[in-house]
Amino acid sequence: MTTAFDPIDLSGTQLGNRIAMAPMTRSRAFGEGLTVTDSTVEYYGQRASAGLIITEGIQPSIVGRGYPNTPGLHSAEQVAAWRKVTDAVHAKGGKIFAQIMHAGRIGHPVLWPDQELLSVAPSAVAAAGQLYTQEGPKDFIAPRELSGDEVRAIIGEFVDASRNAIEAGFDGVELHGANGYLIHQFLAPNTNLRTDEWGGSVENRIRFAVEVTKAVVAEIGAERTGLRVSPGNAYNDIAETDTEAVYPALVKELEPLGLGYLHVVEMTPGFRDVTLALRKQFSGTFILNPSTEGPTDHGALGLIEDGIADILAFGALFLANPDLPARLKAEGPYNTPNTATFFGGDDKGYIDYPAL
Fold first, then answer.
1. Which residues contact 91 (CB under 8 A, 6 or more apart)?
2. For 259-312, what is each residue's pLDDT tens digit?
3. If I label 147, which of 88, 96, 129, 307 is the partner at 20 to 30 A Cα–Cα?
4. pLDDT grade for 114, boundaries at 50, 70 and 90
5. 15: phi > 0 → left, psi -120 to 50 → alpha, else beta; which?
6. Percent of the chain with pLDDT over 70
7. How far apart are CA 294 and CA 307, in angstroms?
8. CA R_g for the chain
9. What is the mean pLDDT of the chain?
10. Span 133-179, pLDDT tens digits
11. What percentage of the chain's residues is helix, strand, coil (to nearest 5)?
12. Phi, psi of 251 (to 5 degrees)
């Protein structure tokens, strides 16, 4: 029987176990030009016992940024700073993928040097709600609808950031197609009102995700490319009415590429049927970030033993427990995450959680 502590071959990348650190925004890129710092080097190095680390979302461009103090991969300085992180993880025997995240309409001009800029999206539809900024909460504003040429240019941004990730020493990249950000905005009917080749039918709405993935695969290789999706996720004012049509259609288009992995964020146990359908359809490595309404500690490991996932991704539990694989194997005890220090701040709640 396969367990979470068995090694796995991730399309040529050898992982020591089947426990992944899920991507988590920490808003601590305090270096010049939104570069990560020595604290970030320590943070990821502490967690190198994961079979796979997936970084926080990294913007591929200035306008792709959605939150304060999030890091980029679009400058030489950013590449050099991330190299220190990957070196630290590799020195401890770990593997690390960079998550490339374009926030799309989730952003605000106060985040950018040129405050005349607008966020961009498939359609000019503002998200409901507010964004926390260093100037306080700001209402989301209507984004600018991308032209067809601009859509192609943003695909190029994903490619450039992926190339930069490999230059920075990452073992691969994960394309963020979940949680209401740009790729997800193209997938969802309430955020994509287009009538051209990029919108309307399911075939057209999945096109951006497919074309981004194909372009990145062509640049860095399928074995170093993963995709994260979150079927049925309403976060960031997403309303998906045809989940059971969109995601199988998307995976059908991606399956021939031979991706390194598919990473599914399971919203509730009620979406387990969707999880199982995608698991059956996708022949590569299947990473599952299981619903938080089920077990979120060692109780979730049976999902690997039952064959529902090849790898399990843990979020807040990994944030608070740098040696999580060892704690899962021992069935605890676990440090409790301090939610007040999740985003921004100093090293408290970042690199001071104790190991066993």
1. 45, 48
2. 999 999 998 777 889 999 999 999 999 999 998 888 889 999 999 999 999 999
3. 129
4. confident
5. beta
6. 100
7. 17
8. 19
9. 96
10. 888 899 999 999 999 999 999 999 999 999 999 999 999 999 999 99
11. 35, 15, 45
12. -65, -35
Contacts of 205 by beta carbon, 8 Å cutoff, 6+ apart: 186, 187, 188, 189, 192, 198, 199, 246
Among 206, 194, 177, which Cα is nearest to 100's?
177
Which of 44, 67, 181, 350 is labelled catalytic?
181
Q: Running DSSP on this structure, what letter comes out for residue 111?
A: G
Q: Angle, nearest 10°, between helix axes 38-46 and 76-91? A: 30
| Phi, psi dihedral angles at 179 (to 5 degrees) | 60, 25
pTM: 0.97
Helical residues (DSSP H) of 7-120, grouped into ranges: 38-46, 76-91
| SS (HEC) of 201-227 | CHHHHCHHHHHHHHHHHHHHCHHHEEE
Give whole-number Cα distances, 172 to 50, 99, 227, 325, in Å. Answer: 15, 9, 11, 22
DSSP sequence for 168-202:
TT-SEEEEEE-TTSHHHHHHSTTT----STTSSSH
**Which sign does the torsion angle of CA 111, 117, 122, 128 carry?**
positive
pLDDT per position as a tens digit, 43-66: 999 999 999 999 999 999 999 999
SS3 95: coil
Closest to 27 in 3D by CA, of 74, 87, 69: 69
Q: Under a CB-based contact definition with an 8 Å cutoff, are residues 296 and 314 in contact?
A: yes
Rounded to 5 degrees, φ, ψ at 60 are -85, -5
Q: Is 181 a residue of the active site? A: yes
